TrEMBL record:
Cofactor(s) demanded: [4Fe-4S] cluster
Pfam families documented for this protein: Radical_SAM
Stretches that traverse the bilayer: none
UniProt organism field: Paratrimastix pyriformis
Descriptive protein name: AmmeMemoRadiSam system radical SAM enzyme
Keyword annotations of the record: 4Fe-4S, Iron, Iron-sulfur, Metal-binding, S-adenosyl-L-methionine
Start and end residues of each Radical SAM core domain: 92-312
Lineage: Eukaryota, Metamonada, Preaxostyla, Paratrimastigidae, Paratrimastix
CDD domains, per the entry: Radical_SAM (cd01335)
InterPro entries registered for this protein in UniProt: Aldolase_TIM (IPR013785), AmmeMemoSam_rS (IPR027596), Organic_radical-activating (IPR034457), Pyrv-formate_lyase-activ_prd (IPR016431), rSAM (IPR007197), rSAM_sf (IPR058240)
UniProt xrefs under Gene3D superfamilies: Aldolase class I
């Protein structure tokens, strides 16, 4: 069994060499003005960019305007849809319900296999401010909430590109949505800082986190990022009380070896064996087209490895596979939710009112109502 480092989330101070070091004061925003300068340290993601006045961070949308961080994409959405929640994919959260889904331009990663590269990488190489016309439609928080209330939609997904980079836009939307019982979902690459996760927690219920691989080399080569902050986010999110689901896009020859899949699964189990883990099929896109589409047999093999490692809820994705896309009771194996596709989901033996199996009454982890 692989050993994983413990992450201390305490705000009560840290003991170092016999001395107690007091924790930093609680933040009210995901950035700080660096003392003695007009530079900003952005805390929205683990790049922790130091942004000089007039410049933007790595994502291209968080700008220092004379010592104040301005979110260039605030109130602008490039992608707006009402999706089935299963499309995110999130399987243990309000099944078979619509979710209002929005995304902006920009990203803190540079994944060479990105399937939404036309929006996520739209800020790369831009000099000066982004043109208003490139940001998409005006969509202020109040308009999003009004549309959800009018249509009876009970959740909002911040998705399509990386939501960590438009933290303030998401939070302000959810502050208006909360009084109507609307829940929030982050579909994220998991590069948030612990500080940002704490700020988000009152407003976001679900962290659907990409675990793209289990080597730092993969993250550096394919994403211009690092693995360790993603592992920290998964642990931190679970400890802070988010509902967490993990997705791994399996790319042939890159992250699908038995050893890597096993270590991935062991890590997830070390956090919580009840975390749903989705293994999804890759198709060639953007700058990385040398690998072929992921065969179904690779997905099924990964699922078996993950189950042997102790994961209780493992799913296939981007393939036609009802058997491994459905949810089963871990106690009696009853079919709780049948998924023929993301558009064909049927609740069978799940009692959503109690979050339990109708046959044996075993509690099923998730957010069901």
């Amino acid at each position: 069994m692989t050993n994983f480092p413990h992450i201390n989330l305490s705000n009560r101070g840290t003991v170092v060499a016999g001395k107690t070091m007091q924790a930093e004061p609680a933040l009210d925003k995901p950035w700080q003005l660096i003392e003695g300068s007009r530079n900003i340290r952005c805390l929205a993601c683990s790049h922790r960019c130091v942004i000089a006045p007039g410049r933007t961070g790595h994502c291209g949308v968080r700008k220092n305007e004379d010592g104040v961080l301005r979110l260039l994409v605030y109130g602008h959405s490039i992608a707006v849809n009402i999706d089935p929640v299963e499309k995110k994919p999130v399987y243990h959260f309000l099944p078979s319900t619509p979710i209002f889904s929005i995304g902006t331009i920009g990203c803190n990663f540079e994944c060479d296999f990105c399937q939404n590269w036309d929006i996520s990488q739209a800020t790369r190489g831009v000099t000066g401010d982004i043109e208003e016309s490139a940001m998409g439609r005006d969509l202020p928080p109040q308009t999003i909430v009004d549309q959800c209330v009018r249509r009876g939609i009970k959740s909002i997904a911040f998705t399509y590109n990386e939501p960590a980079i438009f933290h303030e836009y998401a939070v302000d939307t959810m502050k208006l949505a909360r009084p109507f019982g609307i829940k929030g979902v982050f579909v994220t690459n998991g590069f948030e800082t612990p500080e940002a996760l704490r700020l988000l927690r009152p407003w976001i219920d679900v962290m659907r986190i990409d675990l793209k691989a289990f080597t730092n080399e993969f993250y550096q080569r394919h994403c211009k990022a690092r693995l360790d902050p993603v592992l920290e986010t998964i642990r931190t999110a679970k400890q802070l009380g988010y509902w967490v689901e993990v997705v791994t896009l399996l790319i042939p020859g890159e992250n699908d070896s038995d050893d890597e899949v096993r270590r991935m699964a062991e890590f997830v189990v070390s956090v919580d064996s009840n975390i749903p883990h989705h293994f999804t099929a890759y198709h060639p896109d953007y700058h990385f087209t040398s690998a072929g589409r992921t065969p179904l047999r690779t997905i099924l093999h990964a699922i078996e490895i993950a189950k042997r490692a102790g994961e209780k809820f493992v799913y296939s994705g981007n393939v036609v596979d009802e058997a491994h896309g459905s949810t089963y009771c871990p106690q009696c194996n009853a079919t709780l939710i049948s998924r023929q596709s993301m558009h064909e989901t049927n609740i069978v033996d799940l009692d959503a009112a109690t979050g339990s199996c109708r046959r044996c009454h075993t509690a099923i982890p998730g957010i069901w109502k």
